[in-house]
Design a protein that fits this description.
- With 334 residues, the chain is α/β, with parallel strands linked by helices.
- The protein folds into two domains: 5-152 and 286-329, Isopropylmalate Dehydrogenase (3-Layer(aba) Sandwich); 160-274, Isopropylmalate Dehydrogenase (3-Layer(aba) Sandwich), CATH 3.40.718.10.
- It is built from eleven helices and twelve strands.
- A twelve-stranded mixed β-sheet has the order 3-4-2-1-5-12-11-6-7-10-8-9, sandwiched between helices.
- Helix 1 packs across helix 2 and helix 3 (94-112) crosses helix 5.
- The longest helix has 19 residues, at 94-112.
- The protein is globular, with a radius of gyration of 20 Å.
């Protein structure tokens, strides 16, 4: 049985993406579970190899099936889309935003054609994307547009704790307005189906509360009464294994210890704080609702340490490993 092919996008060349890619692929254990192929620029990756004093060799390929996929060799689909003489580490640059977008674009093409089985992405910079006139705010929006997918789901996983999000990049005020009966119900259904797609078919989902102590039956906030409780009840009546609302100060701890198979967080930071406090480096973002699986590090381009050789590869190693673990549920291995 062939190991899954995982496309790793190089991210913003001015950030730590190239460095953590080189460091991650120096780990021979990754090759036991997958075939990692990098989508990027050979000059940028060669610069990262020099920065890391790495003996790894680049092998330029045009088709993922051409790769060697053994430790010591980095198999690269080289887009040759960056002039290294104009690259400055740690600075927002339009040509870096454009290059990062093109890496993602190529990876999506490979995934849609079945040439790779999952994507593991490194960080991009929103300001650099804007400078390059890329009309999207981040990875999820780019992936949705390129694959013609509607409203993908974000799932965080760390140490077996799984957290979905009812809303992502909107203001806190807007996120509260999005806590409606219909939306909560729709997300319970979508999250349940996403878990099944990952092969998780047992256990109960919990919906977090929005207000302190779930509003104490409307004493300080009534979203739980008007939206969350009716949505959960409707989902239960349709056979979904879900409970809630459960106070946000306890539900993540309970899920971590196995009481729930996942948590639906009601806004961005509610779930981000819980997962990243548990283990910042090993918190991995999984994008579902696409025609392919995508995992990602959940940290930024770290411009403050770019080019200094200080970046940790732990998060990317975890992202690649998780992509390899879940990808067989998205395709039939041969």
């Amino acid at each position: 049985m062939a190991k899954p092919l995982i496309a790793i996008t190089l991210g913003d060349p001015a950030g730590i993406g190239p460095e953590i890619t080189v460091k991650s692929l120096a780990d021979p254990k990754l090759y036991e579970h997958c075939r990692p192929v990098v989508i990027g620029d050979s000059a940028v990756l060669q610069q990262a190899l020099s920065l890391c004093n790495s003996p790894q060799q680049l092998q330029i390929i045009t088709d993922p099936e051409q790769g060697f996929y053994h430790p010591g060799t980095i198999d690269l689909i080289d887009l040759r889309n960056l002039d290294l003489t104009s690259l400055q580490w740690g600075i927002v640059q339009a040509h870096c935003g454009r290059a990062a977008y093109q890496y993602i674009e190529k990876a999506v093409q490979l995934a849609l054609s079945g040439q790779v089985h999952a994507l593991a992405t490194t960080p991009i910079n929103k300001e650099a994307l804007q400078a390059a006139h890329v009309p999207h705010i981040g990875h999820t929006e780019i992936l949705a547009e390129l694959s013609q997918s509607h409203d993908p789901l974000t799932l965080f996983e760390v140490r077996g704790l799984r957290v979905f999000f009812l809303s992502r990049h909107v203001s806190l005020r807007q996120s509260c307005d999005l806590v409606t009966k219909d939306r909560v119900f729709q997300y319970i259904v979508r999250c349940a189906h996403a878990l099944q797609q990952l092969g998780i078919t047992t256990g109960t989902m919990a919906v977090a509360g929005l207000n302190p102590h779930c509003g104490e039956h409307g004493l300080f906030g009534n979203e739980e009464v008007t939206a969350v409780e009716p949505a959960v009840k409707m989902a239960q009546q349709q056979g979904y294994q879900v409970v809630g609302p459960i106070g946000a100060d306890s539900v993540f701890h309970q899920a971590l210890h196995g009481q729930y198979n996942s948590v639906l967080s009601l806004y961005h930071d509610q779930g981000h704080i819980a997962t990243k406090t548990l283990d910042f480096e090993r918190t991995i973002s999984i994008t579902l609702g696409l025609p392919f699986l995508r995992t990602s590090v959940d940290h930024g381009t770290a411009f403050d340490i770019a080019g200094k050789g200080l970046a940790s590869p732990v998060s990317l190693i975890e992202a690649i490993s998780l992509a390899a673990h879940y990808s067989p549920h998205f395709y039939t291995p041969r």
